[in-house]
Backbone:
């Protein structure tokens, strides 16, 4: 059973797995709290198929700065490499 990491972590099991892989607390928390983070194997919507507005919302969720000055391909690259 996964340890309870408090109300700020929505998926404690996923958080612990990411921390075990060496991710920082911040990044592990961000990933484990993302609504579609549990989708694997190509089930998540491809970034290329999303609108710029959807990409801006995703970039905001993960804390990418300067996102409003980016075009769609720059947003996709920033999200993938964050």
Residues:
């Amino acid at each position: 059973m996964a340890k309870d990491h408090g109300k700020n972590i929505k998926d404690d099991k996923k958080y612990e797995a990411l921390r075990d892989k060496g991710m920082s607390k911040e990044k592990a928390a961000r990933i484990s709290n993302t609504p579609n983070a549990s989708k694997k194997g190509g089930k998540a919507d491809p970034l290329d198929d999303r609108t710029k507005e959807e990409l801006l919302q995703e970039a905001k969720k993960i804390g990418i700065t300067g996102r409003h000055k980016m075009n769609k391909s720059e947003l996709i690259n920033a999200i993938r490499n964050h």
Q: What stands out?
A: Residues 1-41 form one domain. The radius of gyration is 14 Å. The helical segments are 12-20, 25-33, 52-62, 72-80.
